[in-house]
Every structure is written in structure tokens, then in C-alpha cells.
């Protein structure tokens, strides 16, 4: 990975290289995800990434890099290194038997990955996608501490943060707090068949990050607003 002091890379012919857009998935692998849910999620993620890869190949402005965190009682990197979406082959997630839905450990892992010096200075603001089928089960105070750790990192605070709740019972104030913007709704998948549709919306939002100058509120207006998707202009706003 390049460092903040890495010189600007130019493509053959003198053009400036595309700006990195980091997408990090935070995927619930608790015991409740076993069976049809995890199968549907794996299929939907693979399909979403294929769509993003097709979009990426036609891009002149941004290049999408993907990582993934799996969380249950603990959290661990499922895809630890930023991988170009065009090169990624999705490895299926596996549920953790009797695993809880502790989100704070996942927040802390992502905060470490987005710490100053870990993301290119030219990078667009990252996108974080939290997917869960249940309420946070973190011990008292731990969810808040984990989220505060993520928000203390400039790239974490400035990120587009989206959440997909698998089942209406999964929708909670915790997910709204993770998003941190009342104009951006939790994307609710009432059934496993809805997961793919919600991921399509999320991937559309990620692709528009390069066009909307990483303005989360403007992005929310274009993706989720009543007016539909408006024409936007690629901006120069970075994570710094």
C-alpha cells in the first residue's frame, strides 16, 4: 500500500492515476446467521462485488479496494488486505457456532485499518457497510467505546457508513448511531431474498462516492432522497 508521502502516480501518457476508494464490509457471523441467511449473504456479496468490479473497469476517477471483517463474539479479518475489487474472488463467510453479535471488536479493527498513515492521502473517503441480523450484544458500554474509537479516526468519522439489517427485528438505534446521519436510513432486508436488493443500493452508494466528492449528506439526497439520483460532479474532498 502507498503511504501518505508516496508521490502521485501517473499513468502512461501523463494522466493521473485513479484515486483509491476503500470499501470495508463488517459482516455478522454470529450463530443466528447459520443456514439460509449466511448462504444468501455470501451469494449477495459476491454478486455485489461483481457489479462493482464491472463499474470499476469503466472508471477513470476512482479504484475500489475491498476488505472484510467477520464478527461474532470476537472479530477477525476475513479479507485483511485492501484488494482491488476487479481481482477479488469472494471466499464464503462461515457462522460461528453460538457466536454473539458483538460489534465493538469489529469497530476497533476498522479503526486500526483507517488510522492516520494507513490510508493514502489521495484516497476518497472510505465506505463502511455493516450487515447484521441481530441487535448488538456487546457488554454494557462496550458498543459505545468501540464506536467512539472508530469515530476518533478522521477517516472513520468521515466515511460513508451504511447498514443492512437482515429482518426488521435487527433494525435498532445502534445501527442508526453507526450511520450517524438521520438522512441515511438503515436498509432493511425483510427476508433473505431482499439481501441482494439492499446490497445493490449499498453498492450504488459506494460507486457514487467518487462522483459526489464524498459529501455524505449530498450522497444521501441523491441515493435515498425523494428526487432520485441526481447528476453529481467528481470532487476533490479527501479523507484528510
UniProtKB/TrEMBL annotation:
It comes from the Bacteria. PROSITE patterns: VWFA. Residues 22-204 form the VWFA domain. This is VWFA domain-containing protein. It comes from Streptacidiphilus monticola.
Amino acid at each position: 500500500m502507498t503511504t501518505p508521502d508516496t508521490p502521485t502516480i501517473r499513468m502512461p501518457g501523463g494522466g493521473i492515476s485513479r484515486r483509491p476508494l476503500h470499501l470495508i464490509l463488517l459482516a455478522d457471523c454470529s450463530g443466528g446467521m447459520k443456514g439460509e441467511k449466511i448462504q444468501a449473504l455470501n451469494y449477495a456479496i459476491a454478486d455485489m462485488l461483481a457489479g462493482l468490479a464491472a463499474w470499476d473497469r469503466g472508471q477513470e476517477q476512482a479504484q475500489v479496494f475491498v476488505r472484510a471483517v467477520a464478527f461474532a463474539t470476537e472479530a477477525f479479518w476475513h479479507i485483511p488486505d485492501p484488494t482491488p475489487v476487479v481481482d477479488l474472488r469472494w471466499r464464503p463467510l462461515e457462522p460461528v457456532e453460538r457466536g454473539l453479535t458483538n460489534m465493538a471488536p469489529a469497530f476497533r479493527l476498522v479503526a486500526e485499518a483507517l488510522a492516520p498513515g494507513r490510508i493514502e492521502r489521495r484516497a476518497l473517503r472510505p465506505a463502511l457497510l455493516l450487515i447484521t441480523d441481530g441487535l448488538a450484544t456487546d457488554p454494557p458500554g462496550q458498543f459505545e467505546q468501540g464506536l467512539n474509537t472508530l469515530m476518533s479516526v478522521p477517516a472513520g468519522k468521515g466515511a460513508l457508513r451504511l447498514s443492512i439489517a437482515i429482518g426488521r427485528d435487527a433494525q435498532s438505534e445502534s445501527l442508526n448511531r453507526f450511520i450517524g446521519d438521520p438522512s441515511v436510513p438503515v436498509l432493511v432486508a425483510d427476508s433473505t431474498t431482499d439481501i441482494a436488493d439492499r446490497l445493490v443500493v449499498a453498492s450504488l452508494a459506494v460507486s457514487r462516492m467518487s462522483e459526489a466528492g464524498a459529501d455524505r449528506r449530498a450522497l444521501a439526497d441523491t441515493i435515498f432522497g425523494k428526487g432520485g439520483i441526481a447528476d453529481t460532479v467528481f470532487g476533490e474532498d479527501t479523507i484528510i
